[in-house]
Design goal:
With 130 residues, the chain is an alpha/beta fold. It is 33% helix and 18% strand. Strand 2 and strand 3 form a beta hairpin.
Length: 130
């Protein structure tokens, strides 16, 4: 995958932040997402894991499993003008979901680098890991 920084490309990360890009999708660190959520910034977080994974651990994001996303993308129409950060277990499925959303016309989509595993390791170590 092609990796570059948003600054090197002259592109801002979701309007104003620098971050690595993978296939044109900004990679958001768990620290950055936590800071933005704590600051009550307008960020919509989407979980694309499977329902059984959400039962193990979740951070309160709405769930649309990756396999369902292409047929359910219309459910996110109200979020189209918001910044969307997609997460999964480790970042792979959420990267694919972010690309689906970008190709569906969502202009401000990022991937949570490291997924919920990184969140559990770096933000809230009390969360279970699987």
């Amino acid at each position: 995958m092609a990796i570059a920084t948003a600054r090197a490309l002259g592109v801002s990360l979701l309007d104003r932040r620098d971050a690595p890009l993978v296939d044109g999708i900004p990679q958001i660190s768990v620290q950055e997402l936590k800071r933005r959520l704590d600051a009550k910034e307008d960020v919509f977080v989407l979980d694309v894991r499977e329902p059984h994974e959400v039962q193990i651990v979740n951070i309160g994001a709405p769930l649309i499993p990756l396999g369902d996303l292409p047929k359910r993308v219309g459910e996110l129409a109200a979020q189209k003008d918001r910044e969307i950060v997609v997460h999964c277990k480790s970042g792979g499925r959420s990267q694919m979901a972010a690309l689906i959303l970008k190709n569906a016309g969502f202009p401000r989509v990022g991937n949570l680098a490291g997924g919920i595993l990184a969140w559990a390791e770096q933000i809230d170590p009390t969360l279970p890991k699987y």
